[in-house]
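P.,

For your records, the input lines for the assembly:
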Amino acid sequence: MATHIDAAGVHYTPLNQQVRTAVAAGETEIVLDHVLGQRFIADGLVGEVTITVNGVPGGDLGMFMRGPTVVVHGNAEHAPGNTMEAGTIVIHGSAGDAVAHSMRGGKVFVRDDIGYRGGIHMKAYHEKRPYLVVGGDARSFLGEHMAGGTILLLRLNATGSFAERGLASGIHGGEVFIRGEVDDRCLAVGAVRMPFEEEDRARIRPLVEEYCRYFGADVGAILAGEYTRIGPESTRPFAGKYTWE
Amino acid sequence: MTIGSVPLRYKVTIDPERCMECGRCIENCPYGTFRKEGDRIIVAVSRNCTACHRCIAMCPRDAISVVERPVDYRSHPLWTPEAREAIYNQARTGKIILAGMGNALPLPSIFDRLLLDACQVTNPSIDPLREPMELRTYLGKKPSKLAFRRTETGDVELETKIAPNLMIETPIMIGHMSYGAISLNAQLALARAVHETGTFMGTGEGGMHPDLHPYQDRLIVQVASGRFGVDIDYLNRGAAIEIKIGQGAKPGIGGHLPGEKVGPDVSRTRMIPEGSDAISPAPHHDIYSIEDLAQLVRSLKEATGWRKPVFVKIAAVHNVAAIAAGIARSGADAVVVDGFRGGTGAAPKVFRDHVGIPIEAAISAVDQKLRDQGVRNEVSVIASGGLRNAADVTKAIALGADAVYIGTAALVAMGCRVCGTCYRGLCPWGIATQRPDLVARLDPVLEGEHVANLIHAWTMEISELMGAAGINAIESLRGNRDRLRGYMLDEGLLQVLDVRTVGA
Ligand code: SF4
Ligand code: SF4
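Structure tokens returned:
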């Protein structure tokens, strides 16, 4: 039996306290009803628990989180998955700017669109790899300063090629996959096209499958398309910029 | 024209009369200045010298001397040798000049033109030996008023909830120098020193090495734009959390630790792959407004159960007072203001020397603005950036700071000669390096004692200065500009500092 918490009119701190108390007591299923703009849900939360958020959570959903699964039935605000370490966030809707900002591990799935600066400064370390999968579209500065991990942008309802500027500027690790074409002028400093081979398609398959499992779409149709793969020109983008005094 | 060879920066000589050919200078110089030739030790490449003085400190015979700029240029007040050499360098390379330590321009120090007061005859001075001097400081929010309640048994209870504060026994803390920028032994020495002296130090943006865990109660953990090493355990370990927005040595730009310095241990602590550049973007990309800053402050508090003060560090820039007033409303517990003389391992020279304003003016302006707006109690103010001695600390407090961070001074206590070559990663004193043989030169126990000695000595001097001024609690010194006088400062600056001229 899941623990239900009515979030109507509750400030984020007592709301998170109720969540923490339930997790500490061993609860593995928590449902938050009537969520309306409460920030920091599951902020710094550690554990194996599934939190269902019914409503629209506020900013920094799952920030610093390690382990939990958060499923949002609604849109999310600014920076879900910010500096997150492990776990999964599934958003049945769209999300705001800076989604998965500085994320270090775990997965974020967004059914529809995300705002600016998606996946900015994501980074990987050993077995920790972050994944951001977006079904719809993304705005400028996607994957900027990216240091590791994977961004997969499916653009399921888009027509025409991806044309948002500042794509992966300063990227020095990780990779960005975009379904379909990408305008040359989008590629920012440090970002280069990489070949998209069958093995790359095999690598993104599990992500597409997981996306389709959450949101119900056709794996075969999505995977069949052409993809643009973008990676770093160098892992040392600043190596040649300076001279000693 | 060949612009490849400019005159020697330093000329090193060995006095053959004194040298006993022990070879210590060769072993100690990581730059390869000395060489053995036959049975003699010679200065092979003077040009390699950085004036770190390691050889001089190690030579048993006082045989070595170093002279700066042995070759004169035609003198010119505008076209200094530095100006000319920077041009030769950039004409050759076409690159940005990278420099170390703080601002190297010969700009006058405001601290040196502020003089402290002392009592004479009336209102006698206090003898710190006889009277207790209260230096203990609490950093964090103070309630604007207190509410009490009488219990059924007739006792009085405090109703107001007090925000968490850091208690320090001296107003001197050690600022943020990351593992990566400095060595683990250097961090361990600093950690031992703050443990010993009842104060705190910053981790910098480099995570916390496990060897520092025993000292975690004395560490302020930093969250900067790269979020290196930041996870929930790191946040929970720190005594306080500091969001670094800017740094006095290079306001407005990010930082970057070159891949060469990201070895296995630094990689683990920062949580990034070995050998890759660690790039901190210029802004935090989740902070584009004061509301976003408030969101990060609250997120950090929420993640750590509202048990820790959160500081926000900014570089002292033109509008520092207004920015600090915004920070005071963001939920932050302290604002750290880092002046334009702040040190650094590496910064573009053009930023180090030209961007930002002096800490003296910045602290005064910040304190004044916060008081004018009635929010001074909402945040503590921490001053940093080029504080050289107890007098500077005392003056910073009289200008409105609650406490200070020292950085370079603590490194100097461990042997640093301010050679300004930290960016080479070969610090011969084992401070700004990750090379194991160089790191091993720094003994954390001994250098920890040296740093603790320095903090003790300055703390005693501050009590003496306070006693001489008839002040027995640091609270009465804070923002007490009446105990300062400006010497040869212009009217405009006197106004900003809110200090009267000498004689007035
Ligand atoms: S350390 Fe001094 S005495 Fe020893 S070789 Fe060098 S110059 Fe000579
Ligand atoms: S830390 Fe080392 S390299 Fe840096 S200025 Fe001091 S002595 Fe020189």
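Two observations worth noting. The longest strand of chain A covers residues 29-36. The two ends of chain A are 66 Å apart (CA to CA).

Regards
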